[in-house]
Specification:
This protein is an all-alpha fold. The protein has one domain. Helices cover 78% and strands 0% of the residues. It has helices spanning 2-13, 17-30, 32-35, 45-76, 82-91. Helix 2 (17-30) runs parallel beside helix 4 and helix 4 (45-76) runs antiparallel to helix 5 (82-91). The longest helix has 32 residues, at 45-76. The protein is elongated and about 55 Å long. The mean pLDDT is 83. One of its GO terms (molecular function) is protein dimerization activity. This is Transcription factor PRE5-like. Keywords: Growth regulation, Nucleus, Transcription, Transcription regulation. InterPro entries: bHLH_dom (IPR011598), HLH_DNA-bd_sf (IPR036638), PRE (IPR044293). Its main location: nucleus.
């Protein structure tokens, strides 16, 4: 009985080829590296997923860098100032 449930739940999680194509297309629109290419250039789904991972890593690095810069800025201002309050809110 649990094997039957397992098959039912896994089939419910499967997506159609059309849905996959649509999702990959949506990712392409979000990725600067791919979005800037000519429409005639075909990009494989694996390339889109690879670029998505690279872009997410890049965004994480940017967030880390900005957080570090804000922390340094916070250290350089008066703790009770309005600027410090704004910086703390950005770090949250």
């Amino acid at each position: 009985m649990s094997n039957r449930r397992s098959r039912q739940s896994s089939s419910a999680l499967r997506i159609s080829d059309d849905q996959m194509i649509d999702l990959v297309s949506q990712l392409c629109q979000l990725l600067p590296e791919i979005r800037e290419r000519r429409r005639s250039d075909k990009v494989s789904a694996s390339k889109v997923l690879q670029e998505t991972c690279n872009y997410i890593r890049k965004l994480h690095r940017e967030v880390d860098n900005l957080s570090e810069r804000l922390s340094q800025l916070l250290d350089s201002v008066d703790e009770d100032s309005h600027e410090a309050s704004v910086i703390r809110s950005l770090l949250m």
